[in-house]
Amino acid sequence: MAAARKDLLVNILKVIFLAFICLIFILPVYFTFSVSISSKPRINAGAIIPDFYAGNWIEITKGYWKSGIINSAIVSLSCMIIALVISIPAAYAFVRYRFMADKHLFFWFLTNRMAPPVVFSIPYLMIWRGMGIWDTYQGLILAYMVFEIPITIWILASFIASIPREIDEAVLIDGYGTRDLFFKFILPLIKPAIGVAMFFAWLFAWTDMFFASVLTSVHSKTLPAQLLTALGKVGWGIEYGPAAAAGFVTLIPGLALLYWVRRYIVKGFTFGRL
Amino acid sequence: MASRKLLIGLLLPAILVTGFAGITPMIALLNYCVQTPFELRTTFVGLGHFRAMFHDYRFTDAVFRSLAFAAIALAIEIPLGLGLAYLLRKPGMINSIITALIALPTLFPPVTIGMMWLLMARKNGPLGMVMDFFLSGMFDPFRNATHAWGTIILMDVWHWTGLTFLVSLAAVSAIDESYIISARTEGATRWQIFRYAEFPQLVFPLTFVSLLRLIDALKIFDEVYVLTGGGPGLSTEFITQYIRTTGIEQWIIGYASATSLVFNFIVLILSWLMLMILTGGRGLIE
Q: Per the domain annotation, does B37 fall within a domain?
């Protein structure tokens, strides 16, 4: 009887603890949304319940907010496509061929992924200015490639490695060319990995603020960098409403895709090895 | 050799792009770090910048702060992630919803997370109000260094516990039950089961995720920059922000290049360690 009561108590504590955790994890997201649909006096009063004011969302469809959203979409989607096109063949090569210094090359790719963006930012700023690609889409995309190609290569490589080599041999013996092998057999087999790799290639460009704030100024400023600019005006009173709305826009893809990617998050952050 | 041609064709785009955008910056940094480029007079200073670093208190303090921050964040996130994994390991509708909720912040842009916690920690945000209630109106993360640190740690825990939790969850679900059953028949207590039957199977993933989090914690910039801007004073200025301030804002390129090379070297060694652990020293590709 005492044991049963103790179990009940433990279970109640468990539920309370988990409810508390849920509250903590939901609250910032809810509060940001709530601020984004509140009018200015209500935000300043610190109300938890919004008054459904649409002005902030209308504001971010105009001017620099609008260009930030468009730039973010252009940069992150082109990064995703370019990174995939470059890294699918490379991943296949790393898995199927042995060549000089292959392991060193692979390791070097991965260390790029782990390198701190701040280290690259100073030389990028100088070199990109010299090459005239500072504040352009190309420049930003090129900078992101260093970080995206390694992660996509690793995700794809760990997947391609699970396809038996005999399939390649059988296909080639049956008289198909290398191109057929690639497009008709390998690509359909690694479809799920391509989805995961696409998501993480896209995620890096979508969430990055560091390079965007250093390498762009007017023409190609992405939404996170625009957000930083808006939040940097501390002394002049930050316009919290539009910033919260714009910030919420950056969260929407994560919220929308969460259900689909939740089982791949570990793969994405741990290079598909765990 | 058709296959050699094919191999080069497969690899060349990746090597060209990452080679250009990955190696030229390093060459440029090596070039800058021994000079005073983009200043009034460009002079060769040899290893002068590296020597100056040890006497630059702002730099050493920033390094120390980064390490302290990483240590505190890890000390909270790893046990919390593991504990949550134990609580939520049974498959079920409610558990998977909570799992998804905890994982959610890992997909958010760091700068937005900084903004969310800025909204939360203001005088009239929920966190500010709750903390004001406990500290009788004295909570001010923008003027009090301790409160600023507390808020930053809370923010980082909120952001990254999802990752340690997901890795722990995968590890906990993969525990070989036969060890636990035999330990239980031997009459082991719950703690003994954890310590001697379960923990040895969790060491590998936990070590890996600790290193990953350590590297990411050293690289933290966006959230803190938005939330406190390194303040009050310099009390939350981390190594990344120091490099950015000296290099990009104050335009002292030579010295900033030297500091960033040192920082990169530290991260490189940690990454090497992490990748070796991840692959058990067998090399990265079979």
A: no
